[in-house]
Amino acid sequence: MDHATINLDARxxxxxxxxxxxxxxxGQPVGSRTLAxxxxxxxSAATVRNVMADLEDIGLIHSPHTxxxxxxxxxxxxxxxxSLLEVRNPxxxxxxxxxxxxxxxxxxxxxxxxxxxxxxxVTRMAGMVRLPRHRNVALSQxxxxxxxxxxxxxxxxxxxxxxxxxxxxxxxxFGQDELQRMANYLNxxxxxxxxxxxxxxxxxxxxxxxxxxxAMMLAAIDLGExxxxxxxxxxVVVAGQTHLLGYEExxxxxxxxxxxxAFNEKQEILGILDQCIRxxxxxxxxxxxxxxxxxxxxxxxxxxxxxxGEVVGVLGVIGPTRMSYDRVxxxxxxxxxxxxxxxGDPTNESR
Amino acid sequence: MDHATINLDARxxxxxxxxxxxxxxxGQPVGSRTLAxxxxxxxSAATVRNVMADLEDIGLIHSPHTxxxxxxxxxxxxxxxxSLLEVRNPxxxxxxxxxxxxxxxxxxxxxxxxxxxxxxxVTRMAGMVRLPRHRNVALSQxxxxxxxxxxxxxxxxxxxxxxxxxxxxxxxxFGQDELQRMANYLNxxxxxxxxxxxxxxxxxxxxxxxxxxxAMMLAAIDLGExxxxxxxxxxVVVAGQTHLLGYEExxxxxxxxxxxxAFNEKQEILGILDQCIRxxxxxxxxxxxxxxxxxxxxxxxxxxxxxxGEVVGVLGVIGPTRMSYDRVxxxxxxxxxxxxxxxGDPTNESR
DNA sequence: GTCAGCGCTCCACTCGGTCGAGTGCCAGAA
DNA sequence: TTCTGGCACTCGACCGAGTGGAGCGCTGAC
Lengths: 351, 351
Description:
Largest interface: A-B, 28 and 27 residues
CATH superfamily of the largest domain in chain A: GAF domain
Oligomer: homodimer
Order of helices and strands of chain A: HHHHEEHHHEEEEHHHEHHEEEHH
Structural class of chain A: alpha+beta
Strand content of chain A: 15-25%
Helix content of chain A: 40-55%
Shape of chain A: elongated
């Protein structure tokens, strides 16, 4: 396939680009006459037909039936977004709309919500945001609360603002005063370090220094490890799914159901987003490329967002394959940047 | 309208009932011949036609066009569910399916999730559960954690298993040891009492005894009042919205969009459910009766659920007006009962 | 390599006709 | 008075034929 793209001469590329742009705009198969006229080239419709026949052989376009116009195949879209597309700069209004949506004082959860809402509102498709990994956020404080026989509540305060609760089931029972002392010990040792570091340290101490510590400290370390142990839950925030009902190419009810179901389950969405987290720029999945059958006629545009140079999450939109990539891509891109800086914003960290 | 229902003789009622049952089953307008045959009455089609003409005059049925059969109007459905419907007992499998879904050890939130999932799975429509009011649950414990300058985290443990976090912004700053003492004071006074009682007591103490207490106690009461003060957030759990895509009478995309949007916003759903909380049995909204335009072609079946004799919430389903009320009503009913007892189950309260 | 032209294909649309379900009404029976 | 059979009529669903138009592939000329 790849060598085929190289074989395309300038004229064929122009025609393919014009064809796809036209189809994206109108949603109608485009015929040779229209294409000849709108391409800007001074060639006749017959010539265009020849070129189109070639493109069809390569598998970039196809006609739904004899004597209809041509529409792009997934491979055609692929080539289009990879090397033919000229992305517009996002319009100033759009940038402003996105920018003004970010409240630098909001909690992380709120930021995620607004972001996916913004994405879906501006693009009129479904927006989604993968929650940031908390690898390098600082543990501010850890506390334990006895709930009942062998059940204690661990409270982690992160970055001085996020609070996480975890209920631990233990075999041994601890009194509240014991718990208090263990928390004090852990806080003294670990407060201010990143969760990642905390975890590593606890594991190391459990292995190395168990002889040097009294039973209480040992229990404290054990408890701390249990409390920080679990990764934060994988999650993704989705918004604006209902926009997808508006696109007639997605009008098949059964398909649509599966699609919305996937948004509810979130599992598959997560899978897709996680595929993108290693990339450092906008990525695009077209149709079934993501591996899910029911993504036919859908495309996904994602971009990772980073704080202090480290990628911490991914966001993106899902819409019909026939979408305005030139408009959507920069929107996703700029949103990712703005989210990254909102998360890393000092005004956000200070409180 | 009401006197009209009284004017109906037995035959007309039978015919209306058969007509609606038939329409609910097949989704087709039903004509006089079919109706005459399936009603069980020994009357001719012509007679049936006369009766139908009367029913149409009263506004209980209408034909979509000349010489199609008749279909029920909302008023017809209303009369049907009010006085013609014979509800089946829920089938044993259904009861078992529902019953086995309840895990008596689950947290309230999990219970809500499973319940709405159950409702939607068993009825194949959208299920929803209004979160229970916590009016008479016991406060087990209250703790405070200093997050930063003037920001403290209040942790309420309720019923020995639910945990609620609330961040309070205060004008004055407290040290952690002060907070500890205040928590001790509050726990000593209030633990074990219902949230409702706690709140009342705190308010009373603030008014009455401020002279007798030192500043610390006063601050503690103030703090406690702030922590328990807010009502728990209004919320509703929804599941299985996607089932609604399967019903062709809801196939209008624009309508469907509004409907799903409403599920996302939850506000309107809340409104509907709250209308039902005063009732003590199954309630039904047909079409626009709930006051929302876009509920055309939809009906809502709700039932309140109670713990220890007090109604604490509502659950229900939303589906097409043309639904099997005789099957859905008992399902909703029995689910409400089972949820109530799962919430009140002593095995649930003990841990 | 490009282009005009021809013949062909296929879709979308319209038109007329038929069929069947169902209605409304009427006159006669019970 | 109530019921019933019969009749004329209406309307939607379906079918098939016909038509116009868009668009293709191919070919022969330049």
